[in-house]
Specification:
This protein is an all-alpha fold. Helix content is 42%, strand content 0%.
């Protein structure tokens, strides 16, 4: 039977507050995502969780913590457990506490907008909902659609970042990206441009305009004025 850490998030809270271990080391030991550990350190997550000392529970030794603090590349190892916890095989949708069920529509809306590649079954596994609810939110027919706000399910505590990353990666493999090519957005092939001829002859120099003789112009205007007959006066 594989060893399993008891109360990983509470253990992470204690390690963040009482050790100099890096976020990566704590995340690896507690089976959490690095961003979750960072959120715990920033006070954005696990605010109501009391830290659990893994030394008192016999899951981690002081020497192992000292090794991790001295070497950031060291991976913490579980001590021989006093209590063996069997791995639970979860079937069906994830159970969501009553206090967080009102946040599920907001989480579904966030997943639908930010990860459209996820199938309904994957969303159901992540936040513990039904396919009919997902369809209503997709089609904007949910009874509370006007008041829904997209919220990250990881921030709401409905799923872990690791579970979300796994489902997104699985969806990306099952749904290959489609490349749409448009004729007006592509370059002409080389065979269509090789026959173009370019005129390299330099342009002919412009001829200098004739200089204007001001005296001749005024003389011509005066002659036109004298030739015009005057109108008879009554």
């Amino acid at each position: 039977m594989a060893q399993q850490l008891l109360m990983p998030k509470a253990t992470a809270v204690w390690l963040v507050d009482n050790t100099a271990l890096t976020f990566e080391q704590i995340a690896q030991f507690c089976k959490l995502h690095t961003l979750e550990v960072k959120a715990i350190a920033d006070g954005e997550s696990a605010q109501g969780i009391k830290g659990l000392d893994p030394i008192q529970t016999g899951q981690l030794s002081r020497d192992e913590i000292a090794k991790g603090e001295a070497d950031t590349a060291h991976k913490l190892k579980l001590s021989s457990p006093k209590v063996h916890v069997p791995e639970l095989k979860r079937k069906g949708p994830r159970y969501t506490p009553v206090s967080k069920r009102q946040d599920r529509p907001n989480a579904i809306l966030w997943l639908v907008r930010n990860h459209p590649e996820l199938r309904d079954a994957q969303i159901s596994r992540l936040v513990g909902t039904t396919k009919s609810t997902i369809e209503q939110i997709r089609e904007r027919t949910h009874w509370n659609s006007a008041n829904l706000t997209p919220l990250d399910p990881v921030t709401l505590g409905l799923c872990t970042q690791i579970d979300l990353d796994i489902e997104v990666e699985k969806a990306a493999k099952e749904r290959p990206s489609e490349v749409i090519s448009r004729e007006d957005e592509t370059l002409l092939p080389a065979k269509e441009t090789e026959g173009f001829a370019f005129d390299t002859t330099p342009p002919a120099p412009k001829k200098e305009e004739d200089e204007i003789d001001a005296d001749a112009v005024f003389a011509k205007l005066n002659s036109l004025k004298t030739d015009t007959p005057e109108e008879p006066t009554e």
